[in-house]
Amino acid sequence: MAILETRKLDKWFGGLHVTDEVDFTLEQGEIHCLIGPNGAGKSTFFKLVLGEHSPSGGAILYDGKDITKAKSFERIRHGISVKFQVPGIFQALKVRQNLQIALQHHLQGASLNEETDRLLEFLKLKDAENQLAGSLSHGQKQWLEIGMAVALKPKLLLLDEPTAGMTPDETHATGEMVQALNAEGVSVLAVEHDMAFVRQIAQKVTVLHFGKVFAQGTINEIVADERVASIYLGEVHA
Ligand SMILES: Nc1ncnc2c1ncn2[C@@H]1O[C@H](COP(=O)(O)OP(=O)(O)OP(=O)(O)O)[C@@H](O)[C@H]1O
């Protein structure tokens, strides 16, 4: 069963066709990566799924329900959570306080503390729990941001370039976190440029090009596809 489906999803910005009749399916329990050259429309697709842009046409279904016209906060309440490229953490608060702000939406008292501890361990931030979030390294900030998204107990986690600016070790550790979340039942849609990361986590890959679905398959199928290689070299036009 699909947790997320788009049908002929369309978005124009003025005369620019940025999302072009995209039919996309993300199965329940899947880790699905969205790749494509700069300007392919990946972030726009994300924002359409989140309700930050309204589509020019087509439909978005989440867990079998039509959410095309639902507000962003309603989508989040139904279990869609997102980590954007730019950390949205509270820099002047401690790491622990950041997580508690997100967790207190559904937890209080002892269980709030227990879950904060569990999440700190999971994010490899236990030693940094009393540091101000603004003083964390770039990679640690990204993990805290993932933690803030995970704290909302999503069924579908959207990750926009979660490993941007990370070292290879941090990238690998992030992949392990995503896989652990997935093992707990979270479906994941990630926009990512780092192909090592995509290879590590993706069960399915969709390639966008000029706003259209250009190719879909396993990572091995995608890297073996010469047409996909050529769009990154700017040789193929839709
Ligand atoms: N709010 C907007 N208004 C007008 N044009 C926009 C807007 N947002 C994005 N675009 C344009 O839409 C196209 C797709 O942009 P988008 O950010 O979705 O691509 P992307 O695949 O995420 O790119 P990147 O990998 O560089 O982040 C680009 O040409 C961009 O300039």
TrEMBL record:
UniProt domain ABC transporter: residue ranges: 4-235
Cross-referenced Pfam families: ABC_tran
GO molecular function: ATP binding; ATP hydrolysis activity
Sequence intervals crossing the membrane: none
Residue stretches in coiled coil: none
Gene3D superfamilies membership: P-loop containing nucleotide triphosphate hydrolases
Keywords carried by this UniProt record: ATP-binding, Nucleotide-binding, Transport
Record-level GO cellular component terms: plasma membrane
Protein name: ATP-binding cassette domain-containing protein
